[in-house]
Amino acid sequence: DAGVIQSPRHEVTEMGQEVTLRCKPISGHNSLFWYRQTMMRGLELLIYFNNNVPIDDSGMPEDRFSAKMPNASFSTLKIQPSEPRDSAVYFCASSPQPGGAGQPQHFGDGTRLSIL
Amino acid sequence: DQQVKQNSPSLSVQEGRISILNCDYTNSMFDYFLWYKKYPAEGPTFLISISSIKDKNEDGRFTVFLNKSAKHLSLHIVPSQPGDSAVYFCAGSGGGADGLTFGKGTHLIIQP
């Protein structure tokens, strides 16, 4: 079975450029989550969707960050304009139902983003 | 405000012995607690979970204990094996939030 697929695996770009990270959740999973991992803050939730609808985006750091889920099999996280402090590993995860029910989330292998 | 804390950044254990990883939390509204294991350059992988109404859950070599009064949980791995060397994350879920709140992780090193 294919797991959560993220692309690209690595992204290096210059400050001010637009960055788009992509995620394909596990087929049949109704919830999708975006997390960011940094040394200082660890793994933190940015936003999550249930049935393609954004439910909680309180973790999105600034208006420069936006996320969409146009259909059940695809989501994007966009940063525009990017800044060096956005450098981190970004993970996408999916689960069959909302995570509050204790349902484990399945993670992709992440996108390592470096903003120069 | 860190709602989930893993106070040991690293832990070294001899192969065959017991590994005990600890986690403290402050949010009494969490319904579930989960442990994830992470290898370098990979995403976290679910290991084991426990409901807040239980005090123990066991799955093979892995056992999680929950002490609600102390707001503390621990993961026991016995016997420890070289493949257990990884970063272990504790996470809480529920309390009206569907996302996971993670600790910063403990790097477990199993020595031969």
Strand-pairing-aware structural class of chain B: mainly beta
What coarse outline of chain B follows from CA principal-axis ratios? globular
Instruction: Supply Rg of chain A.
Output: 13 Å
The H/E string of chain A reads EEEEEEEEEEE
Shape of chain A: globular
Largest interface: A-B, 27 and 26 residues
Oligomer: heterodimer
Helical segment count of chain B = 0
**Helix vs. strand class of chain A:** mainly beta
Fraction of residues in helix of chain A: under 10%
**Count of strand segments of chain B:** 11
Portion of residues within helices of chain B:
under 10%
Give unreliable regions of chain B as ranges.
Answer: none
**Beta-strand level of the residues of chain B, as a percent range?**
over 45%
Q: What is the end-to-end distance of chain B?
A: 38 Å
Plain-language structure description:
- The complex is a heterodimer of chains A (116) and B (112).
- Chain A is mainly β.
- Chain A has no helices and eleven strands.
- In chain A, a hairpin with a 3-residue loop joins strand 4 and strand 5.
- The model of chain A has no long low-confidence stretch (mean pLDDT 93).
- With 112 residues, chain B is mainly beta.
- Helix content of chain B is 0%, strand content 58%.
- Chain B is built from no helices and eleven strands.
- In chain B, strands 2, 4, 5, 9, 10 and 11 form a six-stranded mixed beta sheet that branches. A five-stranded antiparallel beta sheet of chain B has the order 1-3-8-7-6, with no helix packed on it.
- In chain B, strand 4 and strand 5 form a beta hairpin.
- Chain B is globular.
- Chains A and B meet through strand 4, strand 5 and strand 10 of A and strand 4, strand 5, strand 9 and strand 10 of B.
